[in-house]
Design goal:
The chain has about 550 residues and is mostly beta strands. The protein is built from nine helices and 32 strands. The strands form five sheets. The protein has a 20-stranded mixed β-sheet that branches. The chain has a four-stranded antiparallel β-sheet with strand order 19-18-24-25.
């Protein structure tokens, strides 16, 4: 399985101008403790009674907010989700670039054996959960106008991802168990996908499935929206990633005293921010602002993808300015032609240049070598920035490391707050948000996940590896709000999908560094919706926009 890689040149600190939330540094004072999904809550300091002085931060005592993952072997970060009655745990990739939450169905004839931890091959059984109910075609979830397929009265779905993976199945309603600040579990009824088919990286990945946190509602409300509706919590969540762990806080509130560089975002599906420049050691790369249009903040994409000219500037700096002088003397071959790697230790990595990302509203985000470079293997560090092949950029999980990235959906803004994300995962560092919920209610209290349901796939039922993706059809796939279809999901060749889908994508001349996990990019339907937004179309004109696309135009 290809690994998603994040990396920035060691001599450089990149400042991001995108709407990203910066996690709070150790000096930030917070007064409450948060729950985090497989990411962790950060405790807040409380006043010493009568002294007027602040105590140290008070750690959260609630479990269930941790996240885990890495860039070099997995290419993603995931969290444990607790669902059903009795409760079952599933490992799901946390993806801000897509909307659907989905897990493999019991009896799936073409789902992979997802070998994570001690619960390999987990499957969701509708008959084993007393609270499960299939979603009928006559009553699709709110926001999903019609079911894409209808099989035996069940509301079907199919999703294709731009790196070539696809999933399909039917929607189910069941209880999800969230951890609360009080230590109690909160059951929230929500719809999700029960997969009966997986291909590509969805088939081979270690994680069981995916949980989307975008703004899209093409498959009904996202899981976080169900939590908000049930609890009335703030429309805010944060993600904090380190090298191999992190924390996810759902529904926390932004303290009025928080000092953060807020970046506004647009878009109805993806989180689109207006980046206008990249600077290397304080010097602009000199590319026009328009080339960065539709920069997307996407935790499901492993690395950063830049337009050709800015990418070449960052790449050339990495290749030509090393702290030891002769860069070529330490050059190491990577896994793909566009991997640029060196043999070095961590102290040498810190000697690379500093970059910064600049946004239209004047906010800038600093990125050091630890945010734009990644460790391929012990003692080998590579650049984690790649050529998008066209205008537009993607800020991926690699660039979110060491920040608590706040998604304030109520005010349509994001911020990057410097933070000890590994400490959050260990519950030794507090979130800058106040209160909130964790994704894994099974770990947040006395709720014990069942182990009696189907946990693994036997050799007799294991399906063969999926066939390679077929060529794309002559026309784009239907958008999320299109009429039902019984046609198979669009398969996109891996060569074409090397970079995430952006306006007017062009295939690279040769297969380069592939995006490496099944949630690496947005759903194709989300990309098309973004195309409509770029064309200045209203939601009501989306269908006309889709039908007017010339043959072959698509991700």
């Amino acid at each position: 399985q290809a690994a998603r890689h994040l990396a920035l040149p060691a001599n450089k600190v990149c400042v991001a101008m995108a709407p990203i939330v910066v996690s709070g540094p150790a000096s930030l004072n917070v007064t409450m403790v948060h729950q985090i999904t497989p990411l962790q809550f950060l405790p807040h300091p409380v006043s010493d009674a009568g002294s007027g002085r602040r105590r140290g931060r008070r750690m959260s005592t609630i479990s269930g907010w941790q996240m885990k993952g890495n860039l070099h072997t997995l290419g993603y970060f995931s969290a444990t989700v607790c669902m059903g009655t009795p409760a079952r745990q599933f490992d799901l990739i946390v993806d801000t670039g897509s909307a659907l939450t989905a897990v493999p169905c019991d009896g799936c004839p073409h789902c992979g054996v997802h070998k994570h931890g001690s619960n390999a091959g987990a499957r969701f059984s509708e008959t084993s959960s007393s609270t499960a109910a299939a979603v009928s075609c006559s009553q699709p979830p709110l926001g999903m106008s019609t079911c894409r397929q209808c099989d035996g009265g069940k509301c079907g779905y199919s999703v294709s991802y731009t790196e070539g993976s696809s999933i399909r199945g039917h929607l189910v309603l069941d209880d999800f168990w969230f951890g609360s600040e009080s230590g109690a579990q909160r059951a929230v009824r929500a719809s999700f996908g029960c997969q009966t088919y997986e291909s590509g990286l969805f088939y081979s990945q270690v994680a069981d499935g995916i949980s989307g946190f975008s703004q899209g509602q093409g498959y009904g409300p996202v899981l976080f929206d169900y939590l908000r509706t049930a609890t009335g919590c703030p429309d805010v969540f944060s993600i904090c990633l380190s090298e191999e762990s992190g924390a996810l806080v759902l529904g926390g509130s932004v303290p009025p005293s928080l000092q953060a560089g807020w970046i506004p975002y647009t878009g109805s599906t993806s989180y689109v921010i207006e980046m206008v420049d990249i600077q290397i050691d304080g010097v602009s790369v000199g590319e026009r602002e328009l080339s960065y249009r539709s920069t997307i903040l996407d935790s499901g994409t492993t690395f950063m993808y830049l337009p050709p000219a800015p990418y070449h500037s960052v790449r050339d700096q990495w290749r030509g300015h090393c702290p030891w002088g002769d860069c070529g003397s330490r050059s190491i071959k990577g896994e793909y032609p566009d991997d640029y790697c060196y043999a070095m230790n961590e102290s040498e990595l810190e000697g690379f240049a500093h970059c910064s990302l600049h946004f239209k509203n004047g906010v800038s985000i600093a990125f050091g070598p630890r945010e734009y470079a990644y460790e391929l293997r012990h003692g080998v560090w590579c650049l984690g920035v790649f050529d998008n092949g066209h205008n537009g950029a993607v800020i991926g999980a690699a660039n979110m490391r060491n920040y608590e990235v706040i998604f304030d959906r109520e005010h349509r803004r994001v911020a990057f707050v410097p933070s000890d994300c590994g400490g959050m995962s260990r519950m030794s560092h507090a979130s800058v948000l106040q209160g909130g919920y964790s994704l894994n209610g099974c770990a947040a209290g006395g709720l014990v996940a069942s182990t009696t349901a189907t946990n693994s796939v036997t050799e007799a039922t294991k399906s063969p590896p999926p066939p390679p993706p077929s060529p794309p059809p002559p026309s784009p796939p239907p958008p999320p709000h299109s009429s039902p279809s019984t046609s198979p999901p669009l398969q996109v060749p891996t060569e074409v999908s090397r970079a995430p889908p952006l306006p007017e994508p062009l295939p690279p001349p040769a297969p380069l560094h592939p995006v490496s996990a099944s949630t690496t990019t947005r759903e194709i339907g989300d990309w098309m919706a973004m195309e409509a937004e770029n064309e200045g179309l209203s939601t009501g004109k989306f269908d006309q926009f889709v039908s007017s696309l010339p043959s072959g135009k698509g991700p």
